[in-house]
Amino acid sequence: MDSDRELLEWAAKAAGIPYKALPHSGSCWEKWDPLNDDGDALRLAVDLDLAIVPYPIYNKQKHSVLVQIVQKKNLDEPRFEKMEMHGDDPRAATRRAIVSSAAEIGKAMK
């Protein structure tokens, strides 16, 4: 299981965003944090051609989001899907699913 920092590093690689460590901050990027910023997450999804699908599973408590890599950009393997349960925050689950999917693209890049 990757830490949040590792997910962001791999996602940044996939998006072509230069990594810059900031010792005084918990974030590695001054103005890019798709795990916490809806706009950054949406731009990441658009840039990487990710499909975001609400995925209801029988009842409201089990609602989730499914993010799919719909094009094989820089991937040698078939399409990847990442599902996150909503819990109390469907937006946070959606952002995490986007970043996790982007991280898979980053990991697969040569």
Question: Could you outline the blueprint of secondary structure elements for this entry?
Answer:
Layout: H1 4-15, H2 38-47, E1 50-57, E2 59-69, E3 81-85, H3 90-108
Antiparallel strand pairs: 1-2, 2-3
The pLDDT mean sits at: 77
Rg, rounded, reads: 14 Å
CATH fold group: Bacillus phage protein
Do you know the CATH architecture? Answer: 2-Layer Sandwich
Class inferred from helices and paired strands: alpha+beta
Instruction: Indicate the CATH class.
Output: Alpha Beta
β content, as a range? Answer: 15-25%
Widest β-sheet, arrangement of strands: 1-2-3
Shape: globular
Count up the helices.
Answer: 3
Number of domains: 1
* Unreliable residue runs: none
Helix percentage: 25-40%
Report the sheet with the most strands, covering strand number, pairing sense and barrel closure: 3 strands, antiparallel
- DSSP E strands, number: 3
How would you spell out the order of helices and strands? HHEEEH
- End-to-end separation in angstroms reads 21 Å
Seen as an oligomer or otherwise, the chain set is: single chain
